[in-house]
Structures are given as structure tokens and as C-alpha cells.
Amino acid sequence: MKTVDILAPGPMMPMVLEKLAEQFTLHRLWEMDDKEGFIKANAHKIRGLATGGHVKCDSAFLGQFPHLEIITNFGVGYDSVDAKWAGQHGLVVTNTPDVLTEEVADTCLGLLLMTVKEMPQSERWLRDGEWVSKGAYPLTHTTLRGKKIGIFGLGRIGKAIARRLEAFGLEISYHNRRRAEDVAYAYHETLASLAAAVDILISVAPGGPETHHIINADIFKALGPKGIFINIGRGSAVDEKAMIAALQNKTIWSVGLDVFENEPSVPAELIAMENIVLLPHIGSGTHYTRGLMGQLVVDNMTNWFSGKGPISPVAETPYKG
């Protein structure tokens, strides 16, 4: 398959690039001095794109490649790829589901516990010597005992989170675009209804136009002054200005965030707050899981050009063979 030209618009895991380069003629666009010149001269050769959330693959970008067949995306979220346009133009888009589900669910539970139990703050209390100078860390105002949990986005990861929460003996409800037939959790027709009914709202929502700023001032008001918001999904689903205002005005109690709207830029107002927990998008961040994700990128590309079809096509570009 060395005769097949593929393009990596931006940096990817070395393992992914090495394995792709072994099987294909791989072009590394981000390393080129004249990127536009390369595309003009070689766009007709490119049949595959290997990319990730750090590169915007919109219709204007994808439309430059007349013989493009497949876009293999690193990550379960693929909002940086215009998958709808791709599907309308006969292209296949793949992502990396399943292999990161358990890892992200683990991270979510850790983030939830850190936020509710104020673990980062209490650790700083110890490290700063305040346990010795001031005594025991103040009792926290929050606990998981008796709390109702709402999950926005009960897909693979949302269900894995829910299974873990069941072990804590917590009441779980959820909101999706449609009811899930394989769970017994209470379903809410609207996100506002879910937020009003729970103490802790966990967002596992994907990015994209449909969810942009869907978690807004009204949702935070519904969650209430004792409410806690956890985001392990996409930062773009949250109106960050509204969230900051809700925290400053004590409309909600606290947040635990692993994702942000304009990563890696995090609003200074959030960084200045002591009663919240912020993580640098580490949801799937282990060598083990990222390795599985990278291998799936490679396998999707290899399978496609071997005539076997994609392994994990996204909903907008179903493969019928």
C-alpha cells in the first residue's frame, strides 16, 4: 500500500505516524514550510487523512482533496471534522470508540470525588503546612451520600460512568436526544428538567453545533446553589461565561472540569477559584489507552485500503460495504 498517499495535517502520536509510514506514503503537513503550496501540488494524490481534534477539518479543507476516501480521527469525539459534509460527499470518517470508554469513566469518577470531597484543596492544606499550623482541614459542605446524579449523554462512556455510580448506591437519571432502551434509569425529556431534579450534573456530551453552549445560565440556575457540575465530555457544550458567573454568584456550588472551550486556554477567572477542580484534559491520558486509540486509527486506515472496510465509522458516514 506504499502507493497510497495519505496526509497527517497535524502532529500525532509517534507510534501512529511510524505505523502509517510503514504502510503508506505519509505526508506530514505541519512540518512543511509551504503548506498551501504542497496541497496545491499534491491534493490530487491524497486518498486518506489521519487527524485529531487539534486540526480543523471543515468542508473548505476537505474539499481540496478530490480523491479523498477516508478520514481517520484520533479520539471518540470528532467535532473538528465536518462528518456531515463528508457523508454527503461519499467519504468515510472513523473515530476511536470503546477503547477509551473505561479509562474516561475512571477519570470521571476521580474528578467527581476530587470535587465533592475537596481533595486537591485538602492536599494543598497539608503540603502548605496548614495541618500543623492551623489544625485539621475544615469539614466539607458536600458529600456523595444521598445525592442524585444526572448524566447528560448516556452513550458508551455515560453508561460506564453510571455502572460505577451504581456501586456507590446513588440514584441515577439521564437526558439524551432519545430514551435508551437498555437501562432502567429515570429519563428526562429535557436537560433543564434533569438539572432541576439532581444534585450533581455530569456532562458526557459530544461537541458540535447541536450541543454548542447547551449547558447555559438556565441549566445552572436549575441545578441550584448546592449543585455540582462535572464535565468530562466537550468544553464547547458549556457556556463558560455563564458558568463562571454562576460560580461567582453562588448560583451553583462547584465544578469539576477536564475539558474547556478553548483548550489549552483556561479562563483566568476559573484558575483563580479555590473551590473548583480543573484538570488538563487527561480523560484518556494513559500510555495504555492512547496506544489502543492510536492502533485503531492505523487499523481503520489499513482495513480501508485493504478492501475490508472501516472498523469504526461514525454515524454520519455509515458503511454498507
Shape: elongated
As a whole number of angstroms, the C-alpha radius of gyration is 22 Å
CATH architecture of the largest domain: 3-Layer(aba) Sandwich
- CATH classification, class level of the largest domain: Alpha Beta
How would you state the average pLDDT, rounded? Answer: 97
Residue runs with pLDDT of under 50 for 5 or more positions: none
Number of H/I helices: 13
Summed up, the domain count is: 2
Number of beta-strand segments: 12
The CATH superfamily of the largest domain appears as NAD(P)-binding Rossmann-like Domain
State the CATH topology of the largest domain: Rossmann fold
- Which strand order spans the largest sheet, edge to edge or round the barrel? 8-7-6-9-10-11-12
Q: What portion of the residues fall into strands of 2 or more residues? A: 15-25%
For the largest beta-sheet, the strand count, sense and barrel status come to:
7 strands, parallel
Strand/helix succession: EHEHEHEHEHHHEHEEHEHEHEHEH
Terminal residue distance: 20 Å
What structural class do the secondary elements suggest? alpha/beta
Which percent bin holds the helix content?
25-40%
